[in-house]
User: What shape does this take?
Amino acid sequence: MGAVVASAVVTALAAVVHPTPMATIPAGEYLPFFQASPGKGKTRAAPAPIWMPSFRLDAVPVTNGQFLDFVREHPEWRKSRVKAVFADHRYLESWRSDLKLPDERAAAEPVTNVSWFAAEAYCEAKGLRLPTTEQWEYAFADKGRKQNEVEQQSLDWFSTPNPKRLRAAGRGEPNGYGVYDMVGLVWEWTLDFNSFMTGTEQRNTSSKDDAAFCGNALRSSLKANYTVENVGFRCEADQ
Amino acid sequence: MMRGAIFLLCFAISLLPRPASVSAHDHDHMAPVKASEPVSGTSIYNLASSWTNQDGKRVMLASLRGEPVVVAMAYTSCRDICPMIVADMIAIEDRAKEASLNGIRFALFSLDSTIDTPERLKAYAVDRGLDLAHWALYHGDDKAVRELAAALGVRYRRDASGGIDHSAIITILDADGTIVAQQPDAQVNTEEMVKKLTALITPATR
Assistant: This one.
């Protein structure tokens, strides 16, 4: 897990923001964590792999430094100007002001307290978009490489309280596709974050098996203007 | 986490600006929303998405501005939940008419950007007997649907047979596009929704 080497965080270059390299995720078969519901009146078939076309994914989550560049160019996404319908009052909570990060070190840390709308706008401004949940999970699954290790990392992470301070993005070990920090640093928005249903409004789905995954509870409770202290994002580009 | 967030949601909704109480001396609040003024930060009309209505006319979301709107997302090939949503909306419409509330609009946004063409939406409206003087049905692309669903808190997902699992939520927007009430379809209380609408309609427009 990336966090294992968190102690080696180097902050000297934190203020320098490099364009994020994107990892190429090759096409392949993939067994979704969540199976689509079979449809009204139909029984669930055995899990079937789906074909995932190749795409590119930010190798690391978007940092405060990168997000600062974005709000410089797009003033409507600054703290003082953002519309409440797009981001709640905790938007960029740790930032000192519209264009001021808490400190230099923060520039290299993943941006959090960003809403889904803000994350979407950031990616769009770069000609990119948020990955779908399936794309994210496919990249995370990493062809099953080091699966036991990753599962253990996930469980460890879920059971650990949020750290006071996040470490810098991209400092751990990348997975087999060259993607960093998919587990252990921040939760990430996906394009279709709102495709997970629980509660009274749910229809046509069997939530029992869906609920097996820890993330479902978090994801199904999020609203698009929520900003949460441990939720960030990265962007995706179709090949 | 989920409970906490749901609690927060309830709390957030309770914090939304209340419709201005109307009194004879309160002329500011009685003034109808002017299209030239910027919409409030809580308004979903801040979404820049464009839609095509049942007559094939392209409109911005903000074209609904000016009157309270009862809003839902559904799709025409949906057989069980969506007719319930529409039936609930019609019940609100009927009850509002009895209460002499005029100037309320009803908007149905399709979740199915591939199948629900404007023609199909028109046929659906005619089939259901929707009064197109007060109702409008909208088709949008994936992005428009995704953003509106996000803003309204509607969750949706394609199922394996081509249908769409989705939340059935009826929302009341004030004249400026801010959410003032939301009810899941299984729990729609027509009286309460009409009360909310009554509070939004000023004597000037009644």
